[in-house]
Amino acid sequence: MSFSSSPVVSLRDVAVYQDVNTVLSNVSFDIDKGDFVYLVGRTGSGKSSLLKTLYADLPLLSGVAAVADFKLNKLPRKQVPYLRRKVGIIFQDFQLLFDRTVAENLSFVLRATGWQDKSRIKQRISEVLMRVGLDAAASKMPHQLSGGEQQRIVIARALLNEPVILFADEPTGNLDPIVADGIMQLFMEINRSGTAVLMATHNYEIIHRYPKRVLKCEHGKVLDSQVEEFGLVTGF
Ligand SMILES: Nc1ncnc2c1ncn2[C@@H]1O[C@H](COP(=O)(O)OP(=O)(O)OP(=O)(O)O)[C@@H](O)[C@H]1O
Hints:
By secondary structure, the chain is an alpha/beta fold.
């Protein structure tokens, strides 16, 4: 267990690239333990690229960054799985394995991250399913669940290794407003219990309903509502 009080995410003068193109530059911000932060900006403004840089799917080539006490500069490939155990990643398209049950989807991740004891695996799966309100779904196949339920399973999967932060890219994008609101309440509950959240969204309604700090990708830079005021409506 880490008792460090350093920020969960810390960026100084970072540039985000896709191939040879600079998507964002001079990016500096911190996210502390337990913070909830939205990431907004027009389509193509760099939200997904920034998230990918934070979970080391894109290399950090310029600037200084640390996530969950891992320095992203020159992070060796073999360290990436250890970083990924400390962060939970949630996408819009659910990315569940449709040929196996919910419990098998979850045990697949636990085994891949070093869990071996069958009874502990079973116990952990039951805990995370309870957490997302789907304790009866363990033996179901993903296609037997609604879109909102599938997204809850993805959130349960992201929680398996007790991450210090969740990176969520448009997690409510495909859901109707009521189901999306249920997912937001789940994120808020997870956040209240101490997990930081960085959530990319286009959904202004959600930000209005659950106001939190906002980072906005615009003109190749990242603006921070904690540092400066900016309009929210433009950019969606
Ligand atoms: N795999 C890729 N290879 C090359 N360029 C890419 C790749 N993915 C994204 N880009 C480019 O990088 C820029 C930022 O895209 P990114 O997906 O990060 O934006 P976004 O803000 O997440 O957009 P959206 O809201 O549509 O998801 C865009 O110009 C995009 O065309």
